[in-house]
Write a structure and sequence with these properties.
232 residues; single chain; alpha+beta; Spore Coat Polysaccharide Biosynthesis Protein SpsA, Chain A
Length: 232
């Protein structure tokens, strides 16, 4: 995301008058969640100064600093003692989806009895993320960073989940990936293959909004086009 991240923390880059992270927090809070833990690191003061304790948005925020960049799993492990409930909601900080999807996730949990949930989005090739293989509405396998052109699925891991605290034991026993990181999708694969966890997959359809702010091209597109805001 350079050159923007030379000045901003990635989630605090402005989009039509407010930072990306504010859209994400607003969507999750509208779906019913009011207690947040935000893992911060690079330029953490930008996030903390903007959101403070969250009261402006009617929510509660706790901040935890990730001093060693050891992956999504490493970031999640820092939250273990702060998560009070057995189930919790997790999202990456650079993925924005239609607010309807957040609501659908919480509805599936509270009303359908789905206690393990992951969200997928359609891509031509999931080599940049994690390929999700499904049977009906349930995940059979998730493969982190598959080689380009090798996936037999167009479903990609969006980075939005409802998990249980049992994930922490898996993360603690996990060896670092080739990138030297503890990665949540790899832990989920272990949970599915070895622990027989059943993940309900909420699928974002092609015509539903999903914004990946992991690279400059995507950001430039959303920065220069305000029509997508109407799709939230």
């Amino acid at each position: 995301m350079r050159p923007y991240t030379d000045t901003y923390q990635k989630t605090m880059i402005q989009l039509h008058g407010k930072p990306l992270l504010e859209y994400i927090i607003s969507g999750i809070s509208k779906a019913g969640n009011k207690d947040f833990i935000i893992v911060v690191g690079y330029r953490k003061e930008q996030i903390i100064e903007h959101f403070q304790d969250g009261s402006k948005w009617g929510i509660n925020i706790e901040y935890i600093e990730q001093k060693v960049l050891d992956g999504t799993g490493g970031a999640l492990l820092l939250c273990e003692n702060s998560i009070q409930d057995h189930h919790f909601f997790l999202t990456w900080g650079d993925t924005l989806i239609s607010y309807k999807i957040y609501k659908k996730v919480f509805d599936a949990y509270y009303n359908e009895g789905s206690d393990l949930i992951m969200v997928s989005n359609y891509v031509e090739d999931p080599f940049k993320g994690a390929a999700i293989y499904c049977e009906g509405d349930y995940c059979l396998d998730i493969v982190e960073k598959p080689l380009k052109g090798t996936s037999g699925t167009n479903l990609n891991n969006t980075g939005i989940f409802i998990l249980t605290k049992d994930i922490f034991e898996i993360l603690k026993s996990q060896e670092p990936s080739k990138r030297g990181e503890i990665e949540v999708p790899i832990a989920l694969r272990t949970a599915i293959k070895e622990k027989r966890w059943r993940f309900r997959v909420i699928k974002i359809e092609r015509n539903q909004f999903m914004g990946d702010f992991g690279d400059v091209d995507n950001y430039e597109r959303y920065k220069n086009d305000i029509d997508w805001v109407k799709l939230l």
